[in-house]
């Protein structure tokens, strides 16, 4: 399963945690860390098989962990619903018992996307006026997203401080501005996630811990690839593993504390650090398309 890759960072001996890694971006981040040699704890609700609520999407924690190990790292699957604080606490307690520190936390878990790319009722109303959208979308975005990122980071803080580590919130350009009929809970949740990173950085900086937000472009996740033909222009899209390579380079950068509190873009980091996607290409940054 290894892929050709130049300028590979060395994360051997590093302990990492990626939330929401059964599939999608989280899985890709885990693989990017695995090929750099890291120990990668991966969490999510689907330990094996397929998630009962989303049987149309392949992917499980056991599959992700096995692929991380095949790439040269060590994958450890831990089933966890991050809406449940007790389950999140149990994950961090296990890492503390087994490793004693945490070099990297990647807050990727999120809610509210379920069924979006199948163009079902949720997909059809994604950009509708907010009063026509499911009211549950707010709680899903903030509960399984923003709140989960806050709680996980708070519980991981002692382990991150012990390592002088890094926390990365996976976010998106949508949090920078709201346009036309774009989804309001999504905009507000991503904006809150970015602001939270700035606040994390203020608290963590004296402890030598870094915190950044990281933006992908259009990612070829399992859900995106299931969308009806023509829904997305995939010509400049990124593999999920591309974002993992960006995270791996950040984790290996001895000067990452200087970036703390910043919002970064994976495609721009590829230019700076000199890495490519799994197809050997460097996708362009989507920053310009989201600017005023």
UniProtKB/TrEMBL annotation:
- Pfam families linked: adh_short (PF00106)
- Entries under SUPFAM superfamilies matching the protein: NAD(P)-binding Rossmann-fold domains (SSF51735)
Regions that span the bilayer:
none
- Name assigned to this protein: NAD(P)-dependent dehydrogenase (Short-subunit alcohol dehydrogenase family)
What is the scientific name of the source organism?
A: Deinococcus budaensis
């Amino acid at each position: 399963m290894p892929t050709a890759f130049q300028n590979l960072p060395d994360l051997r001996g590093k302990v990492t945690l990626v939330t929401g890694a059964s599939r999608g971006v989280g899985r890709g981040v885990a693989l990017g860390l695995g090929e750099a040699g890291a120990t990668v704890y991966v969490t999510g609700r689907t330990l094996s098989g397929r998630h009962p609520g989303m049987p149309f999407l392949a992917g499980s924690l056991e599959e992700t962990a096995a692929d991380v190990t095949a790439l040269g790292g060590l994958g450890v699957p831990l089933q966890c619903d991050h809406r449940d604080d007790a389950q999140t606490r149990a994950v961090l307690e296990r890492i503390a018992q087994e490793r004693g520190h945490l070099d990297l936390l990647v807050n990727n878990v999120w809610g509210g996307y379920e069924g979006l790319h199948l163009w079902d009722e949720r997909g059809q109303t994604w950009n509708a006026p907010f009063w026509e959208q499911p009211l549950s979308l707010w709680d899903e975005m903030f509960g399984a997203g923003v709140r989960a990122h806050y709680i996980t980071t708070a519980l991981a803080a002692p382990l991150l401080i012990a390592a002088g580590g890094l926390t990365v919130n996976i976010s998106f350009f949508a949090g920078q501005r709201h346009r036309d009929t774009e989804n309001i809970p999504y905009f507000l949740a991503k904006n809150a996630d970015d602001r939270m990173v700035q606040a994390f950085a203020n608290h963590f900086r004296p402890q030598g811990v870094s915190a950044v937000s990281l933006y992908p472009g259009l990612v070829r996740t399992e859900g995106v690839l299931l969308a009806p033909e023509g829904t997305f222009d995939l010509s400049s899209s990124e593999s999920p593993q591309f974002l993992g390579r960006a995270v791996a380079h950040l984790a290996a950068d001895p000067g990452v504390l200087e970036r703390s509190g910043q919002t970064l873009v994976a495609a721009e980091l590829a230019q700076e650090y000199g890495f490519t996607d799994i197809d050997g290409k460097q996708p362009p940054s989507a920053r310009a398309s989201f600017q005023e």
